[in-house]
Design a protein that fits this description.
The chain is mainly α. It is built from 45 helices and 4 strands.
């Protein structure tokens, strides 16, 4: 508020030619005010921005001019344009020693910046210095910036100074310090958790402004923890009493109301403290009653205090006198000509009706007037009130009114809300099942697509179960009335899909049960539904299943089935449908028609949707068949967890195949082949190893994905080439290597290990006041309105609750609102209606990026690197080591693996396997069957290590080792490759 006042003063001074405001600025404000279009205003502002950019960057600008420029920037920002080029100048102005300039700077930065802006760090030191100033105006300006700009990271920098200011001699400083602490609590509660006692102490401050500011953080604290502040009830009551008795200075009055905003905040706090506490509530009764008597209802602020008093009375322990006073105030609100006061009255009445339902009877005509008011907001609030006051005696009238309102509105969001309330009220307070079915038909007809599918299932369950008694006559009458009502509705255009599903199911189950309608008539209606809604596969599926039931019941009764031509054409169409579900249903219907009566009666018994079905979950009747199949060599049953493992492995291989054949290839281009003399023997040092130039460390990621260089050994047919088919990558994209680097070898084949990922299973809402205004007594009330009011408010006892009624109604409620057993659901499934809702669970693909924290146990290396180097200098061929079951290939080891930019080998148990980064022959011996035996987490862990960059330490150690052996690294001697080739 002070910031807005400051802007107003500055702009007023500019318009009046005050200090620091030039004629140019006054002309700017005048021209913008006289602009006739937004485009003209934007043109003026953009011209002003260009002018300010040029002038604000000039050196040695007078402070008076700079202040005007900052104010003009604020004006530009207020108009919605960007003035970020001048933010830094506003920050600089906060450092000025001149008080008007400093306050202008603080005002500008609090309007320009937010708590996450990059320039905040530049003013923290200035705020710290100004919080210690001797001038309280400077301290207040700094505290204003603290309340707006300090974020969670910078709270510790200013918190000690703010706490010290709580005891400042100036009341304005103490008030702003409380506000700053309140912001700190909202931003970071743990940073000021040790300072919450200060709010209690400042509640007794001598200045009413400080006390009023303390009520805001205390309200937040009490909202979270009510019990910790129960001891403050007497203090809050005392403060509220003093405010109501006008003991505060006149400066706190607003429209002749003594500190109304403090009163409202205190009433909110007392409502929290008195909720469910009779002892605490008794302390509040006197002061709240005084407020009811003293508040002036002729002003909006007085009505606001009265409304808050009603909210407080509805929250605390009930008191008859206070309830009567609240009812009188509500009566004044509802009789007012203001829609705002009527809205407040309806809302307040909805709060009190929970405590004393008979209060609503005093305002019958007023509620009806609000229900018929053209103001849509008031009408919706009235429906909320009617929803709260619904009983079994008035549920029919209220639901009918709600359905009429659904028809008259186009807002789908609110239509959904009203429809759900209609369903809820009908389920709880329905006087009869027939009325419930009729009400649900209306709801489905006008808002069917917006109703939850569970409502449709509950309706079908109610019709199937009936009254839940042994009276079969009443159940058959219920079903017959449902069939007749649906046959009269089925011809209407554009019925909702959910409603059509209910209609098809009821007609299929009970369409011919009473004998009033023939099978041909019902089947013709169902065919019309399937033809009219040909784009809705679910409706067509329900219609076909209903036809199946009709014909099955006819066959079971021994009557001839004459299929209508339209039904035959429908079956032919569905037999060639793209939907496998519709095809399946059509074939089932054709198959059932060809069976005898006994078989059909066994498959689809009449009226069996609610019968219990015994289910043998162990499938013991298949034991003999399984035993015979196993003796004949059939594969045994595989448990689900093992099937998931096999499915994951299959997904890996399928992904490998798809990536290799269709997906994008992310491997680098192959290096050019070197021309090699064909006379080089395959066992020699030059030809036995694929030599790859050692890359620089900065290109580590590229070399991880590079393809290996074809070696000289391509010439020899007996030389074994590296095969990368099915080898899982240890870094980069989660796929397998392509088959581009493989070579045909007829003499020898090397088995590469594939790391298996261990799948883990995911764990899975009294008296009647006859006093009416003299004007309204003269108005005659229409008989229709009197009858409507009598149906809404009359004929119910006040102790009646919204629970389910006794007698057959209790049985009915349990029949269509309670959950049926799983057996009943299975029976419904056997009828065929829920077949479209079944889905086959599919195992999710393996997560190749599941990088868990694992540890790899160390072990002794199986091959000494010094012996490998000795073998390189020897002319004999070194046989590579392998684990159990691994097919090894005799070849000379690759000494260039010493230069690999990453760990050369990783031990798992007693087995060492290579994680070489290039596609050389050393990978062949590394990815052996030991990889299969090692944990998959280890592979993923090392893949994570590789992506972090090369291990320079290992590379230097290996480089030094090679120098000791007298071998020159290839990176230092480019001609080494030629020398080795002879």
């Amino acid at each position: 508020m002070e910031q807005l006042k400051t802007i107003g003063r500055e702009l007023a001074m500019g318009s009046q030619g005050g200090f620091g405001q030039s004629k140019e600025f006054r002309d700017l404000v005048k021209s913008i005010g006289e602009a006739r279009s937004k485009a003209e205003e934007d043109r003026i502002v953009l011209h002003e921005i260009d002018t300010l950019k040029r002038r604000i960057s000039e050196p040695d600008i007078p402070k008076r001019k700079m202040k005007e420029y900052i104010i003009r920037l604020v004006y530009i920002e207020m108009l919605g344009h960007d003035a970020s080029f001048g933010y830094i100048h506003a920050v600089k102005m906060t450092h000025d020693d001149n008080l008007p300039l400093k306050r202008t700077g603080y005002l500008a930065v609090t309007l320009f910046l937010n708590e996450d802006h990059d320039l905040i760090i530049l003013i923290v030191n200035t705020i710290q210095k100004d919080l210690k100033s001797d001038n309280y105006l400077v301290v207040c300006a700094a505290l204003n910036a603290v309340c707006k700009l300090i974020n969670e990271e910078t709270i510790p920098a200013v918190l000690p100074q703010v706490v010290e200011l709580l005891s400042h001699p100036k009341d304005a400083v103490r008030k702003k310090a409380i506000m700053a602490l309140h912001r700190f609590y909202r931003k970071s509660p743990f940073s000021v958790s040790h300072l919450l006692s200060n709010f209690r102490m400042k509640l007794s401050d001598n200045d009413p402004g400080v006390m009023g500011a303390t009520l805001c953080p205390l309200f937040d604290l009490i909202t979270i923890d009510v019990n910790s502040y129960k001891d403050l009830v007497a203090s809050f009551v005392s403060i509220l009493k003093q405010v109501a008795e006008r003991r505060l200075p006149k400066a706190y009055d607003y429209h002749q109301m003594p500190a109304p905003f403090i009163q409202i905040r205190l009433l909110k706090i007392l409502a929290l403290l008195g909720s469910g506490d009779k002892r605490a509530s008794e302390q509040m009764y006197t002061v709240v009653g005084d407020l009811f008597r003293k508040c002036d209802s002729s002003s909006n602020i007085g009505n606001a205090v009265l409304y808050e008093c009603i909210c407080c009375v509805s929250s605390v322990h009930p008191n008859p006198e206070l309830l009567k006073s609240a009812a009188d105030v509500i009566s004044r609100f509802l009789k007012s000509d203001s829609h705002n006061l009527k809205y407040m009255g309806i809302d307040a009445l909805g709060r009190l009706i929970k405590i004393s339902p008979e209060i609503a009877e005093q305002h019958q005509l007023a509620v009806i007037d609000c229900l018929e008011d053209p103001d849509d907001t008031l009408k919706r609030k009235t429906f909320e009130l009617l929803y709260k006051m619904t009983k079994s005696s008035n549920v029919e009238v209220i639901v009918d009114r709600m359905i009429d309102y659904i028809i008259s509105i186009n807002d789908n969001h609110y239509k959904t809300e009203i429809a759900s309330r209609c369903v809820e009220l009908a389920e709880q307070f329905a006087p009869s099942n027939q009325w419930f079915i009729q009400a649900m038909n209306k709801v489905f007809e006008h808002a069917g697509d917006l109703v939850n599918i569970k409502v449709a299932h509950n309706l079908m369950r109610l019709i199937a179960e009936g009254f839940g008694e042994d009276d079969d006559t009443a159940d058959s009458q219920l079903r017959s009335s449902a069939v007749e009502s649906y046959l009269s509705i089925i011809g209407e255009p554009k019925l909702p899909s959910v409603f059509l599903q209910v209609i098809c199911w009821v007609l299929g189950e009970y369409g011919t049960a009473d004998g009033k309608f023939s099978a041909s008539y019902i089947s013709g209606k169902l065919c019309d539904v399937a033809e009219s809604y040909s784009n809705d596969e679910i409706v067509k599926a329900y219609a076909v299943t209903a036809l199946m039931k009709i014909y099955a019941f006819e066959i079971a009764a021994g009557r001839n089935v004459d299929m209508l031509p339209e039904c035959q054409s429908l079956l032919e169409e569905l037999s060639a449908s793209h939907s496998t579900d519709l095809q399946h249903r059509a074939y089932e219907l054709q198959a059932i028609i060809g069976l005898d009566a006994h078989a059909v009666e066994s498959i689809l018994p009449s009226d069996a949707s609610c019968e219990d079905i015994e289910i043998d979950k162990s499938l013991a009747f298949l034991n003999s068949y399984v035993h015979q199949s196993l003796e004949k060599g059939a594969q045994p049953y595989i448990p689900e967890n093992e099937r998931s493992i096999m499915l994951n492995i299959g997904n890996f291989r399928n992904q490998d195949h798809n990536e290799a054949s269709h997906g994008l290839k992310f491997e680098a281009y192959e290096l050019p082949k070197s021309s090699v003399p064909s006379m080089v023997p395959p066992v020699s040092l030059a030809s036995s190893t694929d030599l790859v130039p050692v890359p620089e460390p900065s290109y580590y990621r590229e070399t991880q994905q590079a393809a290996s260089v074809p070696s000289v050994s391509d010439v020899g047919s007996s030389e074994v080439k590296l095969r990368l088919d099915g080898v899982q990558k240890k870094w980069g994209r989660p796929t397998y290597s392509s088959s581009s680097s493989t070579s045909d070898s007829a003499s020898q084949k090397t088995v590469n290990g594939v790391t298996h990922v261990d799948p883990t299973s995911s764990v899975n809402a009294k008296t009647r006041d006859t006093s009416i205004d003299s004007k309204k007594q003269q108005v005659e009330i229409s008989p229709e309105k009197q009858k409507f009011a009598q149906s809404l408010f009359g004929g119910a006892s006040k102790t009646e609750r919204r629970a389910s009624s006794t007698g057959h109604k209790g049985t009915k409620t349990s029949s269509y609102t309670g959950e049926r057993s799983q057996v009943s659901k299975a029976a419904t499934t056997s009828s065929g209606e829920t077949a479209t809702e079944k889905t086959i669970p599919i195992q999710p693909p393996p997560d190749l990026l599941d990088l868990g924290e694992t540890t790899v146990s160390g072990g002794a290396p199986s091959v000494d690197p010094f012996k490998e180097l000795e073998g390189l200098l020897d002319s004999t061929q070194v046989t590579s080591t392998s684990n159990q079951g691994n097919v090894g290939s005799a070849k000379a080891p690759d000494f260039m693996s010493l230069y690999a930019e990453g760990p050369g080998s990783v031990q798992s148990g007693d087995t060492a396997y290579s994680l070489a980064t290039n596609s050389n022959d050393n990978l062949l011996s590394g990815l052996s069957s030991a990889t299969l035996e090692s944990s998959p987490e280890a592979t993923v862990t090392h893949a994570t290590q590789f992506t972090k960059g090369p291990n320079l330490k290992d590379a230097l150690e290996k480089d030094s080792l090679v120098r000791q052996m007298g071998v020159t690294p290839l990176s230092q001697n480019p001609n080494l490759f030629k020398d080795l080739l002879g």
